[in-house]
Amino acid sequence: MKRLLMLTLFLFPLCLVPAGGxxxxxxxxxxxxxxxxxxxxxxxxxxxxxxxxxxxxxxxxTIAVYPSAQLGSERETIQLTRAGQIxxxxxxxNPLTQIVPEFKAFALPYIFRSAEHMHRVxxxxxxxxxxxxxxxxxxxxxxxxxxxxxxxYNSMRPIRSPDDLRGLRIRVQKAEIVMNMVRGLxxxxxxxxxxEVYTGLQTGVVHGAENNYPSWVxxxxxxxxxxxxxxxxxxxxxxxxxxxxxxDLLTPEDQELIRRAARDSVPFQRxxxxxxxxxxxxxxxxxxxxxxxxxxxxxxxxxxxxxxxEHAAELMPIIERIRSVP
Length: 326
Ligand code: GTR
Fold this sequence. Notes:
Blueprint: H1 2-11, E1 14-19, E2 22-33, H2 41-56, E3 61-66, H3 74-82, E4 88-92, H4 93-96, H5 104-107, H6 115-123, H7 125-135, E5 139-145, E6 150-154, E7 169-172, H8 176-184, E8 188-191, H9 197-203, E9 208-211, H10 213-218, E10 227-234, E11 238-243, H11 244-247, H12 252-286, E12 290-292, H13 298-324
Parallel strand pairs: 2-3, 2-4, 7-8, 10-12
Antiparallel strand pairs: 1-2, 4-11, 5-11, 6-9, 6-10
Bound molecules: beta-D-galactopyranuronic acid.
């Protein structure tokens, strides 16, 4: 199945079917990737973007959404998007920090004060500026979706303080900044793709991971990693990427239509987030998981402080700008 999909992908990355040579009649099918299933807020956001595009273009432009990492892991799909084999890709900022290091600032622990603060930063000047850096890497940034807060969960014990994390093997995304953070806490960071985590937890290759409630539950990590500690160490946004290779084939009018559809899908995606979090917490509690919320966050904040020093030189101007946003 996967081979077949990849083949179609290589043959028709962007399917332009000219009818009578008229630009108005060209049909454009954009291939979009997401590593969550169809009901997840990010995938729903892409579907909304597709609906809007279809409506505004009278059916001329559509989006074919491939959910559940059908087109590959996040790292693979980022490369395929740069190569023009995937047109639209919704990914998390963490893996993108390997390509555009300035984005590490959004991945720093406790950098955002609230969801509203994060929205003001990413929707404002700074978010716009950092998206420009993507262009020379073959990508166009179209907007930021919500991903809530990431916290630690594991199969061994309730984590109440950073000391409880010592020695645990914690799965992380393939991103240097997250590895440094986990290492700084005395745990062992194990980089692996999102798709491998379920088995990694089941087989004990990793003791735990870190993510938001919806990912913990929808990917069924909670079946093995039954202790979730709401330390809320990061609020790393998601981003909608567009392939520059495809982008350059489009008319400025169509580019504008796509930008607008992506922009309008953002409030829709964000409006789904909180309900998804509550639903996930309910499911985990019904399944008998332990959610630890009564912790003192201060020692976590202090233990993660060294990551700032490690990246201070390169990130300080951006960190200061984030902090100055009210
Ligand atoms: C989720 C994110 C996914 C993926 C995943 C991970 O929060 O939505 O796209 O990045 O985290 O940890 O790999």
